[in-house]
Amino acid sequence: MAGVAGGVGTSVLAAAVGGVDRGVYRAQTEVAVVVCRSTVSSVGGAAHALQHTPGPPVLAVVDDAPGAAWGTNTRNRLRSIEPHTAGIVPIPLVTVWRDMLRPIQRAAQLLALDPAELSKPERALVRALGQVIDAVLALPDHAALPDHAALPEHDVRSAPADAAPAAPVGPVVVASPGARVRPA
What we know:
With 184 residues, this protein is an alpha/beta fold. Helix content is 29%, strand content 9%. The chain has five helices and four strands. The chain has a four-stranded parallel beta sheet, with helices on both faces. The C terminus is likely disordered.
């Protein structure tokens, strides 16, 4: 897993799924997941990275503001790069983690915790992580990828039905390889 820049959420996502954080993406590096923020600039960085990936990775798009809808330019850019990905997964922001001293430690525990112990935003994140894991497992030769790790056995879809949905991002809900980016 690699990010398009520092601070996009790669370390937290890698800790949450037990993956390897490869830092900022470098050309021709094979990774299963590329991480960017939900801004037109960061998605542009993802577009650039995707031009240099050996195979199409999953693109994890981390919300950059609580409750903010993705802009038109961001959605359009995501639509244009979707065919070069193995799926685009929106990742909701867990706002309270912004003020937490060690959010990476909380992320590393997330999938092992009982869903009843999680806040609604954390349950929404767990569902998004399940989409990332499913998309990675659907990649051809996913076990041969250098950042493959033993993925958790916790059923990430077992979050209670009353769990808050992912932040209303609207533009993209893609989890399976080859799926089309669909407006909400």
